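Q: I'm writing up a methods section and want to include an example of the input and output format. Could you take the sequence below and give the corresponding predicted structure tokens, formatted cleanly so I can copy it straight into the document?
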Amino acid sequence: MSMNQHDIIGKYLQAIGVMTREFFYEMEDHILSSFENRKDKTQTLQEHIRDEVQPSFGGVKKILSIEKTQMNARRKLIWKRFFQILMSYLLGWPNMIITAGVSGVVYISSLYINNSKLFGISLALWFILVFVFMSRILWYSYQCKTKKKYYKTSQVYSVLGNDMSLFISIPNVVFQLFTLSGGSELLMKWVNSPILTIPGTVLLILFFISSQKLYKEEFRLQIQALN
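A: Here is the clean output for your methods example:
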């Protein structure tokens, strides 16, 4: 593939709204393969894209719907893998040893630290992880821009960016709901109740550990490529 062909395809995909790296390269390979096997050898790449490739997908909206479908599939794979890791700490051997150790540390800590502070510390760990994810997402988008890529992000980062934004907003929404319904006292009782905060703290720490492990795997999750 020549740089000129790369630029023509890149500008086309950028113009119609393709945003993710994985789908960009799949479409680029598909367009090049189709162009190399075209029946009319006098047809230019631009003409082939306009007259053959785009109509074969059913138009621009259909192309973008394929990208959206792929991102939804990748979201399911990411969360499926996350819960697989989490369940391995709750029910799997030998990861249950780690869970038992975490539970012991949390329980002993609760004897010396106020329950609300203990829960706050574990919640802070989760937000730190969210911050790390969001920083990496923003950095990747910045690199795409500075390196003048024709895509803006990756499917993994697009999925995580949306989901992490939701996680950041959940605590505030819950607090507001309790406040508006006059349940702020109930919320404080819940936070200070060891029966609830100790298991909750353990679970948040396991969320942190599971997310960190998923992060180290770099979300190498495969989905079906274009036909």
